[in-house]
Amino acid sequence: MELKNIGILGCGQMGSGIAEVAAKSGFEVIICEVNEQTLTKGLSKIQKSFAKAVERGKLAAEAMEAALARITGTVHVADLADCDIVIEAVFEDLATKQRVFAELDQLVQPEAILATNTSSISIAAIAAATQRGDKVIGMHFFNPVPVMQLVEYVPSILTSPETVAAVSALGEALGKTGVLAKDSPGFIVNRLLVSYLIDAIRVYEQGLASREDIDNAMKLGAAHPMGPLTLADFIGLDIIKDVADVFFEEYGESRFKSPPLLTRMVTAGQLGRKSGKGFYDYK
Ligand SMILES: NC(=O)c1ccc[n+]([C@@H]2O[C@H](COP(=O)([O-])OP(=O)(O)OC[C@H]3O[C@@H](n4cnc5c(N)ncnc54)[C@H](O)[C@@H]3O)[C@@H](O)[C@H]2O)c1
Prior knowledge:
Elements: E1 5-9, H1 13-24, E2 28-32, H2 36-55, H3 61-69, E3 71-74, E4 85-88, H4 94-107, E5 113-116, H5 123-127, E6 136-141, E7 150-155, H6 161-173, E8 177-180, H7 189-205, H8 211-222, H9 228-235, H10 237-251, H11 260-267
Parallel strand pairs: 1-2, 1-4, 2-3, 4-5, 5-6, 7-8
Antiparallel strand pairs: 6-7
Bound molecules: nicotinamide-adenine-dinucleotide.
């Protein structure tokens, strides 16, 4: 099945990025938010990102105008009824996702696919809120979507091979490289990355080296674009702790146990870049 009309639910950090990439790739996009205020904010994020691409010479001004004309914003979820696929990018909360999937299931055509951009929630648990488990799949983009090349496709045990094939073709048309992962916490990237990041925090806590030396060691010795403590600050220490807690509960392995320093920093509101302080100072 060819997917032409793309609906997106949520115009936050990820939804706006997915809309930008889809419109730039020639797709008609309709994006839904909870109210006019959040919709305006999300759409202006898309405009700014496009304008920056034009400024940097990565996109022609006419291409930007054409792409922007392909994006329609709405605050009425019913406007997504004719989409071939809806990609959900609302808050990372199971009850919220189940509620919107149940609503979408009633609304869209029987052959439409419902994809979720969840980072950590079970795809099967989201699919259970619908009557079309075979057409529900994880489509995990990375932040910032216009820059990051990867998308993880995550079928649940209910998802059909046709759905996997259709979203893989869509990902390719969006210029992304896809990988296939099982429906288990963290999929591929976060499963590996989070244990690395919390190990780096543990190493710092144990006084093995300074934060700068830990970061420089991985930048210069492993050719990583940024060190683990800088990356942890960038992602947000609260998010890393939440994900580590989910892994620890699921797998029971001590390597996923949140280091005491991480727990203390989150409790104290030192969440990284977004709070102005984490392993480094951003004020
Ligand atoms: N930020 C990241 O780095 C990242 C990376 C990969 C995946 N994700 C996942 O993507 C999803 C979205 O994350 P985000 O960072 O974009 O969050 P965000 O908070 O920036 O955006 C979420 C948006 O969804 C909107 N929303 C909430 N309920 C809605 C509803 N019922 N209908 C329409 N809009 C609704 C909110 O108003 C908000 O604008 C989450 O599941 C998250 O785990 C995030």
